[in-house]
Amino acid sequence: MAFPQAFLDELVARNDIVDVVSSYVALAKKGGNYFGLCPFHNEKTGSFSVAQDKQLYYCFGCHHGGGVVNFVMEIENLSYPDAVRFLAKRAGMEVPEDGADREESRRRQRVLALNKDAARWFHQNLSRPGGAAVAAYLERRRIAKRTATNFGLGASLEGWDSLLNTMLDKGYTKADLLAAGLVVQNKQGRLYDKFRNRLMFPVIDVRGDVVAFGGRVLDKSEPKYMNTTETIVYSKRRNLYGINLAKKTKRPNFILCEGNIDVITLHQAGFDNAVASMGTALTVEQTRLLSRYTKELVLCYDNDTAGQLATQKNIDLLKNSEFSVRILQLPRRLAEGEYVKQDVDDFIKFQGPAAFEAVLSGSADQMEYRMDTVAAKYDLSDPEQKIAYCGEISQLIASLPNAVQREVYAGQAAETAGVSRQNMLLDVERARGKKRSQERRTLQKENLNVVAARQPKDRTLRYADPRSAMAEEGVIRLLLMDNALAESCGALAAEEFSAPFLGKLYQILLDGWSQDRPVTAASMAGLCTQEEMAHLTEVLHKPETAAHADRALADYIQVIKTSAKRRSGEQEADPLLAAVEKYKKQTKGNGGKRL
Residue 239 and residue 217: Cα distance in Å, rounded? Predict the structure, then answer.
């Protein structure tokens, strides 16, 4: 939506970015800016910067950036109009809206209201004849009525249109039901309930809104689980089942489980810090959500092959993050003389909460888990396999950045393999040396590619003419430092910019100056995509000085005009680009080696 610029300027002025960001991220002032751990990617050292003078944020690690509106869009998973409304409510401002955006907001609120009424209807079905089978299933699974109410569990009925007709009677339309993903339309155009004869799990976000549903069959039919598809209010990558309750926990960590029933069982047993991903592996967006509430995660998946693969995948995702990660491995249960696999629900049922608390307290850190996983692959009584184990475990330990950690875990690995601690440390340091040499070669190769080093991180914004784009960036920086410099840009047209995005920014700045309306970077959020705002923030973090700004601007303009003529065929090719292309051709013809 194109909100009036005067309104956006006031919105930004009333929502100081440091105040807003501080409600999500712990910031500390260093020099002229504020720094903290980035909420948009996992890190241990704070590379997230907030510039109060520019009203911008930027992460030097993941390159996310923008103004206060962009921050709210990312952190709250909101669209641009909804982020503006969020900030307007925060500042006590009334939002001027046009018809189209009022309609989008109305549809969003309509779907949320429909989901809430549907969840209430599903829950009420538990006490009706049509939901008796689901109620009996919950009783067999030892899920108390109080727990069922706490999670809003319910039952979808067996008929094809029970929910459809009930919600139509309440005044909702077929379009509302389709938008919420509660009904499906067949090829003949007939609508029918998506969820039928299932145990229903409403998915509730951190704001308490019912955004989606999951449904589980009671028999052996397929699919066993069914979930709401992506809708206007729901993205499975950005939500966690049980987060609305777990965010209130007093425990120091969160337990990440495999399924909805596991979460419910743990909460009922007193572990109110359990959550589960929405039918997918853990995502970066979900880790950002978790980072608001905890810095310690306990991975608790089933002890079968699929659970082990999920654990390893999540360990890789969380590697080098700000999270302290532990792994809870459930012991196998002895049944009829054999040890069988069990999930969280089984363990709580057969062993009880106290036993789970004991296992939770003794859960291994991620390095111990990974070392145990490697050791399990080899028969260490066989000399050849022992050598192979030492090679793999040395590579794993070499990846640790801390020398003390490497020494401690090398000692443990040496004891496991039955070799000397000294030899294991030698293998680890040898592997670390090879790893560092490879990293140096990679860095040297990247530094040789001059053009690539100048390119934006987002590939959709790649520069076709990097030399001109560097000058175009300089013009943007200078005009944002002093809008009045636009008076000296009369001879330069936006069409002469090689990068369309930078040309768009330039035109916005010129229009603002001609209308006697200063433009700030933060106020451009509604005119740029998230990727464009992130790149603009990165551009503004490059060095530029106001001293001799007129001379610098004239130099930039000359480079842009010369490059524009060259691209149109009026001038010879840029010697710098020609030299780079020649170098690339020579190295390609020589197997990638330097001549």
Answer: 22
- Range 379-390 average pLDDT: 91
- Residue 465 in contact with residue 472, Cβ under 8 Å? no
Q: What SS3 state is found at 414?
A: helix
- C-alpha 117/C-alpha 243 separation (Å) is 21
Tell me, letter by letter, the H, E, C secondary structure of 115-135. Answer: HHHHHHHHHHHHHCHHHHHHH
C-alpha 127/C-alpha 134 separation (Å) is 10
The one-letter amino acid code at 117 reads D
**From CA 582, how far away is CA 580, in angstroms rounded?**
5
Say how far apart CA 131 and CA 437 lie, in whole Å.
64
Query: Count of alpha carbons within 13 Å of 159, Cβ hemisphere only?
Result: 10
In angstroms, rounded to a whole number, what is the distance separating the alpha carbons of residues 167 and 203? 19
Instruction: Decide: 446 and 453 in contact? Cβ < 8 Å.
Output: yes
Cβ contacts of 280 within 8 Å, gap of 6 or more: 236, 237
- What percent of the chain lies above the pLDDT cut of 70? 89
Note the Cα 491 to chain centre separation in Å.
44
CA atoms of 65 and 49, how far apart (whole Å): 9
Say if CB 351 and CB 339 are below 8 A apart. Answer: no
Most confident of 133-147, 287-301, 319-333, 377-391: 133-147
Asked whether 258 and 302 are in contact (CB, 8 A), the reply is: yes
Helix (H) or strand (E) holding 261: helix 260-268
d(CA 1, CA 15): 19
Which residues does 300 contact at the CB level (< 8 Å), separation at least 6? 255, 256, 257, 258, 262, 274, 328, 330, 344
Q: Stretch 225-232: mean pLDDT, rounded?
A: 92
582 or 538, which is more confident: 538
User: pLDDT digit string (tens) for 39-83?
Assistant: 887 777 888 999 998 899 999 888 888 999 999 988 887 778 888
Kindly write down the DSSP assignment for every residue of 440-451, as one continuous string.
HHHHHHHHH-HH
CA proximity to 303, closest of 373, 382, 401: 373
Of residues 319 and 106, more confidence is placed in: 106
- State how far the Cα of 201 lies from the Cα of 197, in Å rounded to an integer: 13
Are the CB atoms for 286 and 246 separated by under 8 Å?
Answer: no
pTM over 0.70: no
Q: Are 455 and 462 in contact (CB under 8 A)?
A: yes
The 3-class secondary structure across 484-523, one letter per residue, is HHHHHHCCCCHHHCCCHHHHHHHHHHHHHHHCCCCCCCHH
**Model confidence at 450, in pLDDT bands (50, 70, 90)?**
very low
Phi (first) and psi of residue 276, to 5 degrees: -145, 150
Burial (CB count <10 Å: 0-12, 13-18, 19+), residue 354:
exposed
Evaluate if residue 18 carries a pLDDT over 70.
yes
The stretch 462-478 carries a mean pLDDT of 89
What confidence score (pLDDT) does residue 594 get? 42
